[in-house]
Amino acid sequence: MDNSNIQEQINDINRKLDIVLDEIVAQRETRKSIEDLTADLTIIGQDMFASTVAELDNAGVEVDGEAVKMLILKLIRNVDTLTELFEMLESGKDLLSDLTPIIQQVGLDGMHLMHDIEKKGYFNFAQQSIKIMDNIVTHFSVEDLQSLADNIVTIMETLKNLTQPEMLKTINNTLMVYKSIQVNNIEEYSLFKALREMNSKEMKKGIGFMITFLKNISKATTNNQN
Prior knowledge:
The chain is an all-alpha fold. It has nine helices and no strands.
């Protein structure tokens, strides 16, 4: 082996030794920093403990050392339970993060829905409905409501009959005829002219309808009384 190869190996060994020495120095500095930090934290902890003891003593609070020791032991024994609790909290946090966009979207949809309802006038309608109920309550007595409850079946039957297509058509025709009549400009009829009009086909049919209607009303009233 020539001198050049030997010198190269020596240089390589020196470089490796320098790296090892640097690592040893770095570890020594790190250890020293940790020792200094530990010493500082120990001093701080002692000061905090002394301050806490002084504060508790001034406040008249007695600390049971045995109870504190038991608490620490319980915490150590239940470290797995505490870990599970923290994991549950983390899972809850993740779930809340996942639900936040959904909750926000539901809130926006709710705001849009409320805006549409207000735009369509539902709130005003509800407000006026409350006024209607208030007027009903102030206008009618409890006895009136009791009477309404007693006769609600008859009222509903009447409404049912009124809402039949034939009845609605008849009522509508009656209203249309009344609307077409000029009430302020009705022609005057003398007794002779009225008698002559009564001989017309329309009047005879109308009189027949009225007589038939009154007879049926009288018959129904008699049946109800019996």
